[in-house]
Amino acid sequence: MTEAIRIILIDDHTLFRKGLAELLERHGKVSVVAMSGNAHETRVLLAQHRPDVAVLDLNMPDIDGITLIEQLRAEGHMLPILLLTVSDAQDDLAAALRAGARGYLLKNMEPDEVEDAILRAARGETVVAPEMTGKLVNLLDQKQGTSDSLLAQLTQREREILTYLSRGQSNKAIARALDISHDTVKLHVRHILAKLNLSSRVEAAVFAVEHKFASRAPNGN
Fold first, then answer.
1. Cys-Cys link to 184, which of 17, 72, 180, 214 (CB 3.0-4.6 A)?
2. 145-210, CATH topology level
3. 114-160 tens-digit pLDDT
4. How far is CA 49 from CA 17, 141, 219, in A?
5. How many CB atoms lie within 10 A of CB 195?
6. C-alpha to C-alpha distance for 123 and 109, rounded to whole angstroms
């Protein structure tokens, strides 16, 4: 049996944390190894348990979730962080992606959908709630400028990698498929984001889907 994904739940509402933990653990695919209600406790628990994924609320009493993500990233915590919130505001989505969130989920999602998002994040994929997809596309429309001129900046290898990003592939999976190193893929992804004026892999994946990269051959043709 596949080992359960170890997660930390960060939310200041104790009942919500406990209820969600029970729902997520019922299938045995996710194990809630720690729960926290504030930033200080979160740092302590991250060091103690070293979870695979963090699920974080947007609004907390001592610090907002986006600021906490920024701080954790600056401190070297690179685990996937998913925001789980009631806010469907486009500005919050944009801020979360800029801060380094791996995904943006809504609290009205079904538990099975949240579980699936956690499993995908652990595999290196990026996820957003279905209700937020249109708003993510709006963000891209605001930022991308003239698509053809942006795409023209990409090298052939970058176009290949963008194709894999459109399919939700992790860096490790892309490295295996293209027979290149994981670090080389990471470098190419950074270049893709910079050239397309995007903030995250999520945005890159949506951009690629919008421009039909998912249906292209692996060589980008």
1. 180
2. Arc Repressor Mutant, subunit A (1.10.10)
3. 999 999 999 888 889 988 888 877 776 665 555 667 778 889 999 99
4. 17, 40, 41
5. 16
6. 20
- Domain at 5-131: CATH architecture: 3-Layer(aba) Sandwich (3.40)
Strand order in the sheet with 127-128: 30-36, 5-10, 53-56, 81-85, 103-106, 127-128
C-alpha distance from residue 89 to each of 86, 96, 132 (Å): 9, 11, 9
174 and 164 Cβ atoms separated by less than 8 Å: yes
Mean pLDDT, residues 186-200: 86
For the residues of 146-213, what is the DSSP string, one character each? SHHHHHTTS-HHHHHHHHHHHTT--HHHHHHHHT--HHHHHHHHHHHHHHTT-SSHHHHHHHHHHTT-
- CA 22 to mean position of chain CA atoms: 23
Which tokens is 143 given?
Answer: 């930022």
**What single-letter amino acid sits at 92?**
D
User: Count of residues for the chain?
Assistant: 221
**Mean pLDDT (whole number) for 191-206:** 82
Is residue 187 over pLDDT 60?
Answer: yes
Tell me how far apart the alpha carbons of residues 161 and 49 are, in angstroms, rounded to a whole number. 33
Question: Which residue in 99, 73, 71 sits closest to 83, CA to CA?
Answer: 99
Q: Helices 90-99 and 65-74, interaxial angle, to 10°?
A: 10
What does the domain layout of the chain look like in residue ranges?
Answer: 5-131, 145-210
